[in-house]
Design a protein that fits this description.
Layout (H helix, E strand, L loop, with lengths): L3 H53 L7 H14 L3 E10 L2 E8 L12 H6 L2 E7 L3 E11 L5 E9 L3 H50 L14 H41 L6 H15 L4 H12 L10 H4 L7 H7 L2 H10 L5 H8 L21 H15 L11 H10 L7 H14 L3
Antiparallel strand pairs: 1-2, 1-5, 3-4, 4-5
Helix pairs in contact: 1-4, 6-7, 6-12, 6-14, 10-11, 11-12, 12-13
Length: about 425
């Protein structure tokens, strides 16, 4: 089970929210900026046209040559202006008086003439072949304050397009920065929000897989903290119930093992002795205390599968034939099936299934070898073989302890793990005085 998609969903959701909200905000900002900038530009051009009007002749438009010279100077100083012109009213009609630039007929009929004769105005209009252009008109007055003409200025074709394009480009660059910040922020946010979920998930997974810690530690006062608190309560209750059930189950299985061994006087006490040998080996290997306890428990049950083997075969005096031997070889698998309903720990189930595997791969039921074999199974294998050799069997007498040790040494590296054999012989010599 993977929960990486949850982290991705958090990232995708937060990134989408930031992206969409950012796009809306930047679009509205773009529209406002364009509107404000063009309005500001119109006001500036209105002021420029007023300044030009005051500069060329504060008393009317009498000196055409001098006015033309000044308008050319203005046009050179302000490259964004394509045309400067003056129109005046003659015989009730507007006529060009002076024009600096390449365009004609700029003063179109849709202009508010009465208003432009009174006050400065500016406008944005669409001109064929040029697109949007900005124009500004200012009345020219004589010394008596009467309007004698209108001065107009117009921007170059494409000026507004470039101006708006620059605004769009700058806002787009800022949006790209926002996009990068949103991506990084979403990644950080997904990690922050995912972190307690991940810890919770890993703790639950560890508990499910039989980890040592049986509690979810999430120090939080939000919903995750509440979930962890109630989860720990449930786990505590389940573990108590599980322990109670397992105790009953162990006792039941131990009873079954003893009943099975009571029917076979040759194997009476075998499982208990194997369990004790395994415990001593495990301690010498410095295995964790909990594993030593579990190994001892599972060693007590290593032959539980023999419940499924006919009693006549188990107690047969004499050598088993091939068919009977194949039946006996099924007891590790039967034992695993019996315990699978109770033990969730994979290692313990493997110890039952593989305690007759050989170090060289010639054992049963799966033909595993060396490190492929569960360590607990390898320990049980040595202890089980030694006790079997030193016990009375229906088809032979017991080996002496020294003979059994010699047999272990003989099969070291083939049937048994060499390291475990060496440790077990030390145990026998130092603790059992063999």
């Amino acid at each position: 089970m993977e929960i990486k998609s949850f982290k991705f969903k958090i990232f995708l959701t937060s990134f989408a929210i930031l992206l969409i909200s950012g796009a809306v905000v930047f679009y509205l900002f773009y529209r406002f900026t364009v509107f404000y900038s063009i309005s500001h530009l119109k006001e500036n051009y209105k002021k420029i046209s007023q300044s030009i009007t005051f500069m060329i002749n504060p008393y009317g438009i009498s000196d055409k040559k001098e006015i033309s010279r000044k308008l050319r100077e203005v046009k050179e100083m302000l490259p964004s202006i394509s045309d400067i012109f003056i129109v005046k009213k003659e015989a009730g009609a507007l006529k060009y008086y002076l024009h600096i630039g390449e365009n004609r007929n700029l003063f179109t009929s849709d202009i508010d003439f009465p208003l432009s004769f009174l006050i400065p105005i500016s406008e944005v209009k669409k001109v064929s072949g040029k697109g949007l252009v900005l124009s500004s008109y200012t009345p020219i007055k004589d010394r008596n304050g009467e309007t004698v003409g209108i001065l107009g200025i117009e921007t170059k074709g494409g000026f507004l397009k470039e101006f708006v394009g620059d605004i769009r480009k700058n806002i787009f660059l800022i949006f790209l920065v926002w996009l990068s910040i949103s991506f990084t922020g979403s990644a950080i946010a997904s990690e922050i929000f995912y972190s307690p979920v991940k810890r919770f998930y890993l703790k639950i997974k560890s508990i499910y897989e039989g980890g040592k810690e049986k509690k979810v530690n999430i120090e939080s006062k939000d919903e995750f903290g509440e979930i962890a608190y109630f989860f720990n309560k449930i786990i505590s209750h389940l573990l108590s119930t599980k322990k109670l059930l397992q105790d009953y189950f162990y006792k039941t299985l131990h009873t079954l093992v003893r009943v099975m061994e009571e029917k076979d006087p040759y194997t009476k006490g075998h499982s208990e002795r194997v369990a004790k040998y395994c415990e001593r080996i495990a301690l010498r290997l410095k295995m964790p205390e909990e594993k030593v306890r579990l190994l001892k428990e599972i060693a007590m049950l290593h032959d539980i599968g023999k419940i499924g083997i006919p009693e006549g075969i188990l107690n047969k005096k004499g050598t088993l034939d091939e068919k009977e031997w194949e039946i006996v070889k099924k007891h590790p698998v039967i034992g695993e099936k019996i315990l699978r309903e109770v033990f969730l720990n994979k290692e313990l189930l493997e110890a039952i299934r593989h305690h007759h595997e050989h170090y060289d791969g010639k054992g049963y039921p799966d033909g595993l070898k060396k490190e492929e074999i569960n360590l607990m199974a390898q320990i049980i294998s040595v202890a089980d073989a030694y006790d079997a050799m030193t016990s009375q069997r229906p088809y032979r007498g017991p080996f002496t302890k020294q003979q059994a040790i010699e047999e272990l040494l003989k099969k070291k590296g083939t049937q048994f793990n060499p390291k475990i054999v060496d440790i077990f012989i030390k145990v026998l010599k130092e603790e059992y005085k063999v």
